[in-house]
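Q: Hi! First time doing this. I have a protein sequence and I read that you can turn it into a structure. Is that right? Here it is:
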Amino acid sequence: MTTNGEPAAAATATATATATATAEPTTPAEPATATAEPTAPPASPAPYKPVPVAFFAFEGLIGASYDVVKSYAYGWVVLAVAAVVNIALARTVLRGRLKTARAMLKARRTRKLAAGLIALRVGVHLAFGAVGVHATSPAAHIAFAAGMCAATVCLLAFDQKVMLRALTAEAQRTAPGPLATAS
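A: Yes, that's right. Below is the predicted 3D structure, encoded as structure tokens:
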């Protein structure tokens, strides 16, 4: 027993409870409303990240592959190395942007661009053949490859810009307004 008539165990429990109550940190507590209401996740600015325009050079090289192979005996080695580098970059550095690349490849506009580039290549070769000028030297093939690569990069960069603008507008149109979330 203690001097005030309480059992010793009760006095110890009271002293422990008082010590823990006073030993709590003095940091300000968060308001109860912050934990009671679920917070909405922050909205991402755009669902698609743009692919760097320099990455389209690999696609341009694929578009120019015929002339690269025709220009040098070992031109296929350049294409094989470029393909390996393209795959390595796509799987590592640009992994988060594959969604954009896939969306572009599925788009009707991109398929039209690819068909247009093939038609351009065939048309230019037919036009050169009609006037009697053929690209037979390595320099002519490299010049034609550079032109096709530049056209491919420019058209894909433009296609990406148009696609991202359309997807951003669609996301804004379908996003719920601030009044729709309050219920």
